[in-house]
């Protein structure tokens, strides 16, 4: 009996499979009330790039959007208004501060004096001067913020030169650029809520902090491959913090290319119990997939391997991780 040829490692799914997933995903998103269980099941397999719905899927999986489509517009307007208020409160503009000071001066009892309410040079403090080198001044913070924004803009245009979105010629592109900042802020907050204890210094050495998370990974490896765990931590004395600290705190963004990372995040966000346990299973699967090389290696070679994880078939990696559930 003839069989279809096996796809090479890392090859994308067949076109007909992608089309089927796209149609099912679009159908799920077209309902008046989204079935989140169904959405998680579909997204866990990877959101097809051609469907152009990943932003909406992630917003739903993160809880940023309610499952009732009728509430989307209202919820988005509220969140974006809230973000605008945050920016106004926390991102100080020195020029605006100076203008407010000038207005206050004009209203003061010296408003009728010769300076007409403007500050004398002697009245301008070092912290208020635009050329001040103080790191805590409003001007310094303003310039640093502006430089960061410019650097991000240059990096995006350099790494994605084919993305016409950044041209900003259409009103649609411009409006979505503004909304993307607010949406990304709240989505990132929701994402980090599932890992917040890993970033709390006071909890570092507790059962729920980063050391506790690393211990859970060690226990998971011992459960499914005791020989590998003993070789790594006893024979070669490679503790999880030597490599998995970066894996966990950066959500594997430094171990794989952008496209593979996005696929992994589709799976992470689809877990109804939260992304942390799924992340640990993926980390465990990463070790299992290179176990032969690890068992044959010493401290130096194994550490180099784990800190520079080799290219792998992401679909197979996620399949192995799912088997550990």
Features:
GTPase activator activity, single chain, 325 residues, 0% strand, Rab-GAP_TBC_sf, mainly alpha, Cyclin A, domain 1, Rab-GAP-TBC_dom, disordered N terminus, 15 helices, Rab-GAP TBC domain-containing protein
Word description of this protein:
- This protein is mainly α.
- The protein has a domain at 198-323: Ypt/Rab-GAP domain of gyp1p, domain 3 (Cyclin A, domain 1), CATH 1.10.472.80.
- The chain is 59% helix and 0% strand.
- It is built from 15 helices and no strands.
- Helix 1 runs antiparallel to helix 2, helix 4 crosses helix 7 and helix 12 (275-289) packs across helix 15.
- The radius of gyration is 26 Å and the shape is globular.
- The protein starts with 14 loop residues before the first helix and ends with a helix.
- Mean pLDDT is 81; it is low at 1-11, 114-124 and 165-173.
